[in-house]
Specification:
Blueprint: H1 5-13, H2 17-30, H3 34-47, H4 49-52, H5 62-78, H6 83-98, H7 103-125, H8 129-199, H9 205-232, E1 240-242, H10 244-254, E2 270-272, H11 274-292, E3 298-304, E4 308-315, H12 322-325, H13 343-353, E5 357-362, E6 367-374
Antiparallel strand pairs: 1-2, 3-4, 4-6, 5-6
Length: 378
């Protein structure tokens, strides 16, 4: 049987049963220090402005992440160091790509953990030089494995992202050409339809019905072309201070969606184009409205920190299938029978042009999309 990547990495760094035994012996000694180490770890991040920006929700998420880091250290020293361990660690590398974390921060973060855990080893085994050396060697190997796994998956996802960007570039060139070419025949059809309306016999309800249907379908075709062209062109931002409550309220009004926006009333302003930001929430609320159905619910929630403003749009619908989530914000990816998959791609483009991020969060029931935008600067 062919050797797996993880097995090759373990062989390369010399990680084997003696190291597993040493780490399991270290665990009861180090476990009481995990909470303190997690505090040191995230305090170091919060003190470094560039690293702090990588925290998707800012300081508000540090408490939750501390518990995650404690569980990470627990697994680090107890294993088992097999395929499940590898996959769990690989997900961390992929997450770093999602939040655009520069790779050098991975090394810095791992060095903080190396220093703190080595200090625990030194204090516990200072009277046993052989044991101290064994523990340090085992810890060094497993942390090197952690870095290797994260960097490998980081590289894989980054290459995949680059390939996706190249496909989007080709897609954009094609859309630009076809979109402009289709405008002409659609314009001719609209003009002819206008003339036909004027010549239609009075009281001919059947003819009127078919002409109205043609007009409706022409409107849909024009909307699709507009969305496609909006996807590829850098429409200039008309930037000003924006109250997100006003933007979301206007989007809900456009959709005739009765929506309580009180959670947004205390949010600080953001710098942005109100028209384009309204389009973001029109698309998100429309998706939520369609997913929830007539009997379902759509809600918004909000919070802010020193750096960002966050608005969540949730629905009580069926949620998004796991097989689609990784490509949810790509053009032409849709879960609806009549959709062509441009709404979320346009949302992502607009939000990123405002210096923000948008993501999907699965729930026990329904879906939740979260938009994060930088706070307005004075």
């Amino acid at each position: 049987m062919a050797e797996t990547l993880f097995e090759e990495l373990k062989r390369y760094v010399g990680f084997g049963p003696p190291d597993e035994l040493a780490l399991r012996m270290l665990h009861p000694v180090a476990r009481p220090q995990f909470e303190r180490i997690s505090e040191v770890f995230y305090q170091r991040i919060l003190e470094h402005e560039a690293a702090r920006k990588a925290l998707v929700e800012g300081e508000s998420m540090v408490g939750r992440l501390r518990h995650t880091l404690v569980a990470w250290m627990d697994k680090l020293l107890t294993g088992p160091w097999g395929p499940d361990y590898y996959e769990l660690r690989a997900r961390i590398g992929r997450k770093h790509v999602d939040i655009a974390l520069p790779q050098h921060y991975m090394f810095g973060a791992m060095n903080v953990l190396r220093q703190e855990l080595n200090a625990v080893i030194d204090a516990a085994f200072i009277q046993e030089p052989d044991m101290l050396r064994t523990q340090r060697m085992a810890l060094g190997k497993v942390l090197d494995l952690e870095l290797a796994i994260m960097l490998h998956t980081y590289r894989e996802d980054l290459l995949s992202q680059q390939a996706r960007n190249e496909r989007l570039s080709t897609f954009g060139q094609l859309v630009g050409s076809i979109g402009h070419e289709l405008r002409n025949p659609l314009g001719v059809m609209e003009s002819s339809l206008y003339i036909l309306r004027g010549r239609m016999a009075a009281g001919d309800e059947r003819a009127k019905k078919h002409i109205d249907r043609l007009a409706e379908q022409l409107g849909i075709a024009n909307t699709i072309i507009t969305d496609l062209l909006d996807m590829i062109r850098d429409k200039p931002l008309s930037t000003q201070k924006v109250r997100l409550r006003d933007v979301v309220e206007a989007a809900a009004l456009q959709l005739r969606l009765p929506l309580g926006v009180e959670p947004l009333s205390q949010l600080p302003d953001v710098n942005g184009d109100p028209s384009q930001l309204r389009q973001v929430f029109v698309n998100l609320l429309q998706n939520a409205q369609q997913a929830a159905g007539p009997a379902g619910t759509v809600t918004v929630d909000a919070e802010s920190n020193a750096l960002d403003v966050m608005v969540g749009v949730s629905d009580s619908g069926p949620g998004v299938d796991a097989s689609v989530r990784a490509r949810l914000f790509e053009p032409l990816v849709t879960t609806r029978q009549k959709g062509i998959g441009l709404g979320l791609a346009l949302v992502k483009r607009i939000v990123e042009r405002h210096g923000g991020r948008v993501g999907y969060e699965p729930r026990e029931q329904g879906a939740r999309f979260v938009v994060r935008l930088p706070r307005s600067t004075p």
